[in-house]
Amino acid sequence: MNLPIVAAVLVLLGLAGIIVLWLAARSRNMHLWLRDYFARKPRPPVVGPTHVMFCFVDHYEPMWGKADLDAQRRRVDRWCRDYRAMAGRHRDADGRHPQHGFFYPEEEYVEEHLDKIAALCADGFGEIEIHLHHDNDTPENFTTAMRRFCTTLNERHGALSRDPRTGGLAFAFIHGNWSLDNSRADGRWCGINNELVLLRELGCYADFTLPSAPSDTQTSTVNAIYYATDDPLKPKSHDRGERVRVGGKAAGDLMIVQGPLGLNWRERRFGIVPRIENSDVRRSCPPTPARVDAWVGTGIHVEGRPEWVFVKVHTHGTQERDIDTLLGAEMDAMHDHLERTYNDGRNYVLHYVTAREVYNIVKAAEAGKSGDPNDWRDYLLPPPPHRARRTEA
Fold first, then answer.
1. Burial level of 163, CB count in 10 A (0-12/13-18/19+)?
2. Is 275 exposed, middle or buried (0-12, 13-18, 19+ CB in 10 A)?
């Protein structure tokens, strides 16, 4: 056997394998974020229990697939009935039910749908925030539409907090089609390069869009809570930013709250290429115990407060193919696992939180607060009117 030839063949096979892996990664836009993913530092060791803030946000679209009004009503009615039943069986360390973030699209507004969702939230099962799909938009149109929607949500449905520092309405945001700040490479589904500035001026306290992988809108920054500064002349200004840290202060235009993003080596494509774990929950990617463990293990936290871990997962909750997963046995099992594994009071303490509460607890950490995060759920932004009315009752 000619050893030099064998060695050359092995080298060529190795190079071919590397090329195949790289092409597979690029086809899923993994090249955008893998560097930051592999460069991340492990979460520092902590003394005492780790507090897990679990936040579930929903791109909640009753009109998905151009459904008629009857189909929309069936979707909303099932959510209001079955979510109440499912979540009512579960509680965190503070006695709170799972909290669902209904990010409702401005362009799909139907008063009766929001009345029903607001009633569910008023009973202690979540809060309403803002979602938006737009394309080739202008700053003027965007600002007008968003202000009108904020007012409608607050005055007609008791949604959205009012910032006591400014007196203005405050909201969390998820961008439709993942295209925050005009971040798609082809420029579709937004059109505004200064969207971060506009959102800040409108009262947005944080964006909850990410992760968006495998979309090309995914940022190079992953598994972080950070402030992004807008460059009004360029898209995707939130690609990088300044991490929120204990003792720091607000920097830039908008806080970006990311959910876990990583590699799933258990379920590899072709038995070789790892799949993307992007914290999406649906029938094709149910919330298994292994995924829950991976989310918590990602360890997203405010720098300097590693004992407070934030887990934000997302879904598109009104699609029929996924509703059985989101409202049935698999979601029950997810909460069972969270409450059994991450709420023993010794190693872990579980807190079901809304997007607003995530922001408040993050800001409390930034201000140097410590101890039980439950004390800081309403640190800066108070509950929206429907939650306040329930508390008074």
1. middle
2. middle
Number of H helices, E strands in the chain: 12, 13
pTM for this predicted structure: 0.93
Could you tell me the pLDDT band of residue 264, with boundaries at 50, 70 and 90?
Answer: confident
User: What's at 354, amino acid-wise?
Assistant: T
Dihedrals phi, psi of 122, to nearest 5 degrees = -60, -25
Which tokens is 166 given? Answer: 């400014």
- The string of DSSP codes covering 159-227 is -SEE-TTT-SEEEEEEEGGG-GGG-STT--S---TTHHHHHHHHTEEEE-----TTSTT--S--S-EEE
Q: Which CATH number fits domain 33-392: 3.90.226.10, 3.60.10.10, 3.20.20.370, 3.30.300.180?
A: 3.20.20.370
Query: What's the one-letter identity of residue 105?
Result: P
Question: What is the domain partition of the chain in residue ranges?
Answer: 33-392
Chain segment 170-195, per-residue pLDDT in tens? 999 999 999 999 999 999 999 999 99
Helix (H, G, I), strand (E, B) or coil at 228: strand
Q: Which two tokens stand for residue 22?
A: 């790289």
- Strands, E assignment, the chain: 50-59, 100-105, 126-132, 161-162, 169-175, 204-207, 225-228, 242-243, 254-257, 262-269, 273-277, 308-315, 348-352
Distance (Å, rounded) from C-alpha 335 to C-alpha 98?
8
